[in-house]
Amino acid sequence: MAGRLLLLRATTAALQLRSNVAARPLLRAVSTAKGIPTDEEQATGLERRAMQALKQGKDPYSILKPKQYAGTKEDPHIVPSIGNKRIVGCICEEDNTAIVWFWLHEGESQRCPSCGSHYKLVHHELPH
């Protein structure tokens, strides 16, 4: 810390010798430093868009855990898709290590061929 302070004083003194006007912005910038910026202050691009959407209560990139559905014919598992079909993997039992894969098509809900859980494909637009 003492080394930084010494370097800051030397830099400030050198700038004051050159021009008294040039030293003022440097001193102001150093003295108003608030510390480490937050994630929100330094986020850019897609990360910034996602953070702003989450503030508004939206989930455009499916970051949050999806809603749980019963898997019955009346309340099927919702599968978002940008096309009219999608491959789905069903883990039929909680401790099962095998995944049952099947194609899910747009329209009526379909059943898993192994356990009978219902899935429904819903058209979903891309967020960008």
From TrEMBL:
GO terms for molecular function: metal ion binding. GO terms for biological process: mitochondrial electron transport, cytochrome c to oxygen. This is Cytochrome c oxidase subunit 5B, mitochondrial. The keyword Mitochondrion applies. Pfam families: COX5B (PF01215). InterPro entries: Cyt_c_oxidase_su5b, Cyt_c_oxidase_su5b_sf. One of its GO terms (cellular component) is respiratory chain complex IV. Zn(2+) binds at C90, C92, C112, C115. The modification N6-acetyllysine is found at K67, K85, K120. Keywords: Acetylation, Membrane, Metal-binding, Mitochondrion, Mitochondrion inner membrane, Transit peptide, Zinc. It comes from Parambassis ranga. It is found in: Mitochondrion inner membrane.
